[in-house]
Amino acid sequence: MHGFAYRNGSLHCEDVDLQSLAESHGTPLYVYSAGTIRDHYRRLDQALEGVDHEVAYAVKANSNLSVLRLLADEGAGFDIVSGGELFRVIEAGGEPARCTFAGVGKTRREIEYALEQGIYSFNVESEAELRYLDQVAGELGVTAPAAVRVNPNVDARTHKYISTGKSENKFGVDFEQIADLYARAAKDLPNVRLRGIQMHIGSQLTSIQPFIEAVEKVAPLAARLRDEHGIEFWSIGGGIGIIYQDCLRSGTIDWWDEKSEQDRPLTLDEYGRELVPRLRDLGLRILLEPGRCIAGNAGVLLTTCLYEKKGSAKTFKIVDAGMNDLIRPALYEGYHEIVPLREPGAERLKVDVVGPICESGDFFCQDHELPDFQPGEAVALMSSGAYGFVMASNYNTRPMPAEVLVDGDKASVIRKRQTLEDLVAAER
Ligand SMILES: *Cc1c(COP(=O)(O)O)cnc(C)c1O
Fold first, then answer.
1. Considering only CA atoms, which of 150, 169, 148 is closest in space to residue 158?
2. pTM of the model
């Protein structure tokens, strides 16, 4: 479920008319639904009922301070991948003691900062990193809590750029090497406290099977590390996929009723139903690191059509958002449903929707049947709440868009649009 639907002929986010937001704040404009973020967090939390667990929101999916504050208020922990993200969590009122720190390339500064702040665990991705963590902690006279990320060599069956759990990916330590690494660390690394084990096999997984495969493969290893080294947690990562095709209708009960059991996308209920029985009796605290499934369907990017160009081969709708604002289509062939803010009729037209950037990869769809919209009209790129604004850049010297958070009938600007002065402020 998400908070976007047509009401009285115009697309709303919760109780707010998106056309009015586009007019008062301009486009491109990211708009998030607070109710949807809360709902998704709570559903996932409830799905894991029956096992000692913590939901550590993956900050990189959407790291706006207001979004983090909202999740901190819900009781979320946080999965961070940089010192910058830890700073954001602290600024938003989150607790460092509920943060796990992932990533293959942590720097000394980042390690020191996280040690000083007292994070819950470093999720370490190589033996070299574990040894360095031990060294830095020793120099600071502290003990570093750590978990090693296991690469279970399971195919997540997702786009190759967001698959992370195969041996050929740069992430984690090979499954076969983990037990020896823990044994060496327990013997040689006095400043590291082995606190858990971690895995994360990929993003946008639309089937439960790879999760089951990975959990079943790693569970005996986790049990062994619990017995031999007293680890207390197992983070099973994030990666739960969301709906990109037909996102708008998926927010209605009808849509779910129409889907056969087989066609239904992975739901949070199914995730919990399948995994809880496989995790329940391990005596380990289960951590989850969801990003996309919390924030993805909770956001849209509003953009205005500037021009229409009819070539001999194609019709192009040129819009004011580009790949610098939303890079998923260009980066990993991501698709975002495109819907006009004024409720359209049934007629459809085959078009390319393209941005203003000087790159052929700057498109939001190609040869796609869409409801018609005219220059001057705004459309929403659905499912843009995760890996949207956070990946935006100033390429082509374009100011970053503004972000608005809607909560009921209230809409707040949670990040101002950049000005031209902002663009050059740090330069000389
Ligand atoms: C990106 C990432 C996540 C979140 O992935 P989603 O697909 O957004 O749920 C979780 N854990 C780690 C280590 C990550 O790198």
1. 169
2. 0.96
Q: Tens of pLDDT along the chain (428 residues)?
A: 899 999 999 999 999 999 999 999 999 999 999 999 999 999 999 999 999 999 999 999 999 999 999 999 999 999 999 999 999 999 999 999 999 999 999 999 999 999 999 999 999 999 999 999 999 999 999 999 999 999 999 987 777 777 777 777 888 999 999 999 999 999 999 999 999 999 999 999 999 999 999 999 999 999 999 999 999 999 999 999 999 999 999 998 889 889 888 888 899 999 999 999 999 999 999 999 999 999 999 999 999 999 999 999 999 999 999 999 999 999 989 999 999 999 999 999 999 999 999 998 999 999 999 999 999 999 999 999 999 999 999 999 999 999 999 999 999 999 999 999 999 999 99
What domains, with CATH codes, occur in the chain? 4-12+22-28+297-424 (2.40.37.10), 34-291 (3.20.20.10)
Structure tokens that stand for 296 in this block: 């993805």
Confirm or reject: Cβ of 85 under 6 Å from ligand 1.
no
Q: Which of 203, 244, 286 to mutate to test the pocket of ligand 1 (most atoms within 8 A of CB)?
A: 203
Q: What's the gap in Å between 282 CA and the centre of ligand 1?
A: 23
Could you give the angle at the alpha carbon of 392 between the alpha carbons of 387 and 393, nearest 5°?
Answer: 150
358 is catalytic: yes
Residue nearest to atom 3 of ligand 1 (CA): 238
The three-state secondary structure class of 326 is coil
Contact 69, 90 (CB under 8 A): no
- Residue 240 CA, ligand 1 centroid: distance in Å: 9
Compute the radius of gyration of the chain from its Cα atoms: 22
